């Protein structure tokens, strides 16, 4: 079946789910929630709904359940607003997902946040970089498949580079995904590692400068969040930040994810349910499709994209470091809802991960973590000693076709093991 639709950046011809893509269990039927949490939990600022919507895209429907993400403000966090800091902590413990309003959030230059934070904390500049990267991603995915395929490094044991549509798996049965993505390394762009082969488009000086700027600015947000969590956890000063230095060798990466619209009569998951492998994820969405499964709930809820905001979520490393005080929530991507359903969806992600040699185990020096760990059954005796590099490799490669699914499980419990 042929389908043409507008993309997030304008009209263009859309590719189709590949033939032979596997079959997934149908997405559960969704219904109205009585409350619309995004609206119910605004910061109370006088703000029109228009400011939060992407005017050039079909509207996000108002009759689908939306997830109860708190909306936090970068500006308020930078002003050390106590209520905002408490909300950040609660969001990281309860759901592990929140919106961050990036508008007008800028740190004064002399008030340097972190010794290694040469990424400027500037929300508006990050939003601009993200916009430019959506355009770059659009160009990247419109390269011929054969060209993109040259940069799939799976056979060399690397998760950087390209993954074609349907070449990842969603479950133990080997059901194929319905997205393509491209991962590009922070260490490469900051000159900390060898330069990886990439399409000419990404080798251009201005593309590299843009990616570097976006990585530094995203990392500055990550450091801010880590600093907040560090003090709430009662860890010795800079513990979390020192495991995630901008210039430390790590698996940090930018990812573009693209999913073509799926035929009406055959809609399956685009990206399977998972928790993120690393520490803090900064995500830009424009079209809906991202869903989270809130704790103790059986109902997947959409995360409504908000203009001027990024979505922040925590990954497995934060769960391991804190004996589960912090939450890394399961999420997945489905076809965009309602009128958005005919459009190609693209998202932009920055994954911050612990430095390669960091062992993913309960951190020392915090009474709160020690107490939580002691209260857990089994204690530390059966804690697996695995470095961040090994963990990410095992999780990422296990989700490629032909990989070891059973070993790719994260901290989300038994749910995804079958
Ligand atoms: O596309 C999205 O909104 C989410 C992507 C995601 O969860 C991931 O790449 O880990
Ligand atoms: Fe994710």
From TrEMBL:
Record-linked InterPro entries: DIOX_N (IPR026992), IPNS-like_FE2OG_OXY (IPR044861), IPNS-like_sf (IPR027443), Oxoglu/Fe-dep_dioxygenase_dom (IPR005123), Plant_2OG-oxidoreductases (IPR050295)
GO MF, one example: metal ion binding
GO biological process: small molecule biosynthetic process
The protein, known as: Fe2OG dioxygenase domain-containing protein
Cross-referenced Gene3D superfamilies: B-lactam Antibiotic, Isopenicillin N Synthase, Chain
Entry superkingdom: Eukaryota
Keywords: Iron, Metal-binding, Oxidoreductase
Domain annotation Fe2OG dioxygenase: ranges: 250-354
Species of origin: Oleoguttula mirabilis
Pfam families referenced in this protein's UniProt entry, alphabetically: 2OG-FeII_Oxy, DIOX_N
Protein family per UniProt: Belongs to the iron/ascorbate-dependent oxidoreductase family.
């Amino acid at each position: 079946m042929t389908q043409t639709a507008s993309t997030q950046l304008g009209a263009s011809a859309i590719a189709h789910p590949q033939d032979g893509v596997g079959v997934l269990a149908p997405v559960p039927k969704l219904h109205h929630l009585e409350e619309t949490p995004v609206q119910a939990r605004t910061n109370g600022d006088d703000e029109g709904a228009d400011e939060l919507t992407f005017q050039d895209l079909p509207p996000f429907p108002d009759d689908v359940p939306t997830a109860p993400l708190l909306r936090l403000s970068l500006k308020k966090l930078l002003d050390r607003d106590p209520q905002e800091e408490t909300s950040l902590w609660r969001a990281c413990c309860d759901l592990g997902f929140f919106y961050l309003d990036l508008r007008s959030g800028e740190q004064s230059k002399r008030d340097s946040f972190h010794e290694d934070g040469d990424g400027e904390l500037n929300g508006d500049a990050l939003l601009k970089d993200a916009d430019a990267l959506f355009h770059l991603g659009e160009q990247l995915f419109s390269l011929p498949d054969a060209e993109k395929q040259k940069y799939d490094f799976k056979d060399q044991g690397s998760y950087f580079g390209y993954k074609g549509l349907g070449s990842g798996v969603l479950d133990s049965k080997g059901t194929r995904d319905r997205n393509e993505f491209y991962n590009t390394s922070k260490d490469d762009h900051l000159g900390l590692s060898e330069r990886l082969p990439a399409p000419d488009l990404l080798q251009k000086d201005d593309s590299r400068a843009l990616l570097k700027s976006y990585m530094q600015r995203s990392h500055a947000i990550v450091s801010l969040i880590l600093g907040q969590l560090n003090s709430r956890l009662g860890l010795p000063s800079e513990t979390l930040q020192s495991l995630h230095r901008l210039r430390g060798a790590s698996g940090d990466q930018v990812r573009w994810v693209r999913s073509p619209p799926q035929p009406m009569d055959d809609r399956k998951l685009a990206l399977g349910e998972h928790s993120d492998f690393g520490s803090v994820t900064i995500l830009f969405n424009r079209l809906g499709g991202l869903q989270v499964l809130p704790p103790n709930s059986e109902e997947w809820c959409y995360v409504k994209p908000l203009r001027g905001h990024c979505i922040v979520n925590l990954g497995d490393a934060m769960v391991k470091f804190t004996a589960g005080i912090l939450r890394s929530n399961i999420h997945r991507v489905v076809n965009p809802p309602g009128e958005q359903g005919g459009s190609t969806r693209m998202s932009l992600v920055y994954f911050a991960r612990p430095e390669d040699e960091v062992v993913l185990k309960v951190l020392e020096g915090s009474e709160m973590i020690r107490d939580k760990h002691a209260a857990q059954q089994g204690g530390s005796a059966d804690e697996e000693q695995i470095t961040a590099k090994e963990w990410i490799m095992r999780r990422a490669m296990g989700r490629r076709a032909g990989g070891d699914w059973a070993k790719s499980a994260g901290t989300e419990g038994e749910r995804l093991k079958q």
